């Protein structure tokens, strides 16, 4: 039994030799592996060093480019701001009012339009005589002569807000510009892109800057076009930014934050004769929308006066057409105004302008085009005889009734194209469904006969 477990000495010596050789081989393998790891580590470290060096070089170049761009942008923006401030001072704003403008006020300066930069007047707007008369009494006269409304009673003061509403293309924005032109007020146009900002608190700061800038440059009309886009009725699902922006705007509008006495302290050095409370008389929030029912009720309440700018009737369409065609050559006794006005029922002022543009192109095409291409005579005049070309331009015939009749097929009222297309598609869908039903019934009858 013992001999089975006792190893022979020769075998014991041979096993010891094998184990020593195995240990040597294992040591060599470990040394080679360690050397390989060291070479890989050194290679990776060298790559990392090269990467860091390249990144540092690129970062330095980027910083230099950014600093040069920032310096260029700052210089250009500062020059544009200084130009805007100089223009405001030249228009009558006291320099003291434009001192120490905040960065947000400077950001809104490009949105200010001076009366001298507006070419639209009430005379350039056809029809809407009733609306223009009311605007003149309620807004223009108080802005131009605030002392007439400086009674101790607040009932004699004009409203702080007015709304222009009606279908698209009826001239609401033109009325707003003409209102600023006629009253001599600066025009501060506000849009979603000028107020909304992705950074926390910036939107409210821009809203506050809009009101403070309007008070600085008064008389001022703070105009919000497409007002339903910014001041839609509030719901529980509104984003926090929109909710806070509306609340800030409404509070500033009411004067809870920027009140009479706060702005009056800024005005004392600018105008010694300004009476208390007159500052806010010359700042008006004017909105325009074609969806007034979607406005927030709080906004509607602050719009003390609302003016409907509706589609024109026959007489108003003629007035609009005559205003648009002023200075355009018309053949004597060649326009049947009654026919044209009857044929354009449902057209807005914008539609009538496009109709006149299409009608004016017809005589030009007859004079210079053949089959949609410039004729040979016109090409020759363009290349050789500029004086004869000017004479040919003056020889274009005047407008005729037939030009408007032909253009009616090209220019239709706004929305008419979409409505017509929707009706066509619905008719196609219904006819296709009915044809499918008829085919199904025929197939069913054929199967029954079989």
From TrEMBL:
GO terms for cellular component: mitochondrial outer membrane. GO terms for molecular function: ATP binding; ATP hydrolysis activity. Residues 158-315 form the AAA+ ATPase domain. Its main location: mitochondrion. Residues 428-439 have a biased composition (Polar residues). Keywords: ATP-binding, Membrane, Mitochondrion, Mitochondrion outer membrane, Nucleotide-binding, Transmembrane, Transmembrane helix. It comes from the Eukaryota. It is a single-pass membrane protein. PANTHER family: AAA ATPASE, PUTATIVE (AFU_ORTHOLOGUE AFUA_2G12920)-RELATED-RELATED, FI08533P-RELATED. This is AAA+ ATPase domain-containing protein.
């Amino acid at each position: 039994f013992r001999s089975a477990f006792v190893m022979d000495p020769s075998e014991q010596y041979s096993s010891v030799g094998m184990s020593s050789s195995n240990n040597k081989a294992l040591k060599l393998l470990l040394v080679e592996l360690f050397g390989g790891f060291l070479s890989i580590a050194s290679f990776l470290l060298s790559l990392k060093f090269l990467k860091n060096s390249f990144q540092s070089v690129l970062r330095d170049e980027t910083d230099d480019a950014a600093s040069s761009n920032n310096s260029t942008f700052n210089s250009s923006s500062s020059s544009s701001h200084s130009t805007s401030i100089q223009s405001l001072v030249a228009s009558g704003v006291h320099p003291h009012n434009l001192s120490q403008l905040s960065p947000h006020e400077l950001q809104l300066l490009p949105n200010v339009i001076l009366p001298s930069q507006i070419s639209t007047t009430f005379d350039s707007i056809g029809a809407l005589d009733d609306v223009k008369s009311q605007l003149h009494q309620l807004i223009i006269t108080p802005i131009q002569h605030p002392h007439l409304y400086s009674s101790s009673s607040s009932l004699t003061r004009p409203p702080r807000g007015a709304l222009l509403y009606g279908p698209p293309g009826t001239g609401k924005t033109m009325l707003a510009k003409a209102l600023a032109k006629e009253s001599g007020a600066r025009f501060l146009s506000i849009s979603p892109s000028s107020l909304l900002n992705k950074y926390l608190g910036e939107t409210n700061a821009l809203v506050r800057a809009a009101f403070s800038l309007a008070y600085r440059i008064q008389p001022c009309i703070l105009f919000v076009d497409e007002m339903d886009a910014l001041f839609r009725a509030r719901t529980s699902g509104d984003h926090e930014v929109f909710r806070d922006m509306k609340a800030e705007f409404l509070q500033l509008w009411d004067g809870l934050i920027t009140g009479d006495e706060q702005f009056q302290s800024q005005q004392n050095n600018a105008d010694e004769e300004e009476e208390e409370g007159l500052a806010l008389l010359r700042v008006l929030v004017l909105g325009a929308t074609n969806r007034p029912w979607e406005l927030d009720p709080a906004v509607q309440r602050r719009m003390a006066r609302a003016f409907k700018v509706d589609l024109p009737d026959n007489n108003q369409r003629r007035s609009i057409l005559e205003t648009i065609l002023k200075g355009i050559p018309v053949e004597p006794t060649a326009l049947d105004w009654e026919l044209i006005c009857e044929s354009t029922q449902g057209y807005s002022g914008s539609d009538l302008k496009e109709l006149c543009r299409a009608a004016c192109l017809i005589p030009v095409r007859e004079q210079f085009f053949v089959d949609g291409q410039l004729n040979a005579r016109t090409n020759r005049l363009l290349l050789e005889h500029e004086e004869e070309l000017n004479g040919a331009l003056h020889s274009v015939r005047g407008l005729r009734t037939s030009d408007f009749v032909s253009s009616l097929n090209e220019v239709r009222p706004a929305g008419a194209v979409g409505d017509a297309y929707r009706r066509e598609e619905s008719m196609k869908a219904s006819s296709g469904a009915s044809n499918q039903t008829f085919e199904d019934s025929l197939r069913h009858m054929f199967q029954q006969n079989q």
